């Protein structure tokens, strides 16, 4: 095999982006995404200190490191300038800001890209099995990452099934991306848990990294300030801080099948990852995989004697469907009987704090009508107490939900925003 190149392009239209990259599950680097916007002018550490220096962030250990470490370090709240001072005094630290809900002070400096908005009509219909649409009508999320050289995100894929745009504010970051069907080459049976690989790219020398990329046919790129990397849903990714840097991701564009098959409702494993990657087009999934999806729905609704029994049942269903529609990932080679019990143990642990396989169906649909007057009053009062300028309120609404005004929010979205406004990053100054 040989490594795959990643195109670098100017911001495309939403239609071109969807057809050329999303539907083809093809990574791409987009340059000049925020040209003319305040965040587009932030290119180095000093710029970030000037614009975001007082912004509060949570400092912790990167979650894949934390999952593998028996020693847990407590989280700490610092403003961004204080964290950057800490990094200067402790250049070898593994403590960083990771997967943190993007603070309003940061999101007020941009307008969420049109590329992140829904490109299909799936939200007009109810969810499969009338399940709740937990994250709002536009299904958008955004997270902040700040870390120094030596930090990394271990090789993993995201169980929420969202597509991701990763925007590099300052510093440089390396990304290695691997297609879902290559899972049998990633030593998954010895990993710390579902969704993680037991291949530790972070421990390899540069020559070993390059050889690995060539052997597995991975994508490999360096992301520079002002560039945004599109990571297709369910793609394996390893991210490495080449130097001190800050980035923001935008998680978006699940269709109804992506939302249904995600960790909101199912466990994650090799079989589910690969079959779900076929659902990137709602129209093609409906046309080509209708019977398979109906089989999965019927199986989910069946009662089981225990949660573990349900895991076993659904894993077998995923294995069967994967074998039918994803022969290229060689499902027959994944996990012999000797390892199956250990894999079930890992899945059971992975979903132990979720409601997966514990719900009675059908689940009542969350109301998505207009927010109540009491919610609107609570939001207005909270914004006032945080001393948000009008532009920050607008950014908080649009960049989280792609809606123009507070009154456009649904009840579920208003509840989500109220929760977000209690975090340390909700402070304006």
What's this model, at a glance?
By secondary structure, this protein is an alpha+beta fold.
Notes on the protein architecture:
With 429 residues, the chain is of the alpha+beta class. The protein has 15 helices and 13 strands. The N and C termini lie far apart (51 Å). It folds into three domains: 7-252, Cupin (Jelly Rolls), CATH 2.60.120; 256-350, no CATH class; 373-426.
Topology:
Blueprint: E1 7-9, H1 14-22, E2 28-31, H2 45-52, E3 56-61, H3 63-68, E4 76-79, H4 80-89, E5 95-101, H5 104-107, E6 141-147, E7 152-156, E8 163-170, E9 173-178, H6 206-216, E10 219-223, E11 227-231, E12 236-241, E13 245-252, H7 256-261, H8 270-276, H9 282-288, H10 290-301, H11 307-325, H12 337-350, H13 373-385, H14 390-401, H15 411-420
Parallel strand pairs: 1-2
Antiparallel strand pairs: 2-11, 3-4, 3-5, 5-6, 6-13, 7-12, 8-11, 8-13, 9-10, 9-12
Helix pairs in contact: 8-11, 10-11, 13-15
Query: Whole-number radius of gyration?
Result: 21 Å
Cα(first) to Cα(last) distance is 51 Å
Count of strand segments: 13
Biggest sheet layout = 9 strands, mixed
Under CATH, the homologous superfamily of the largest domain reads Cupin
What percentage of the residues does DSSP assign to strands (E)? 15-25%
Walk across the major sheet and give the strand order: 1-2-11-8-13-6-5-3-4
CATH class of the largest domain equals Mainly Beta
Number of domains: 3
Global mean pLDDT: 90
Q: Quick one: overall form?
A: globular
Instruction: Please tell me the CATH architecture of the largest domain by its name.
Output: Sandwich
Reported by name, the CATH topology of the largest domain is Jelly Rolls
**H and E order:** EHEHEHEHEHEEEEHEEEEHHHHHHHHH
Can you tell me the residue ranges where pLDDT is under 50 for at least 5 consecutive residues? none
Helix content: 25-40%
Query: Which structural class matches the secondary elements?
Result: alpha+beta
Tally of individual helices: 15
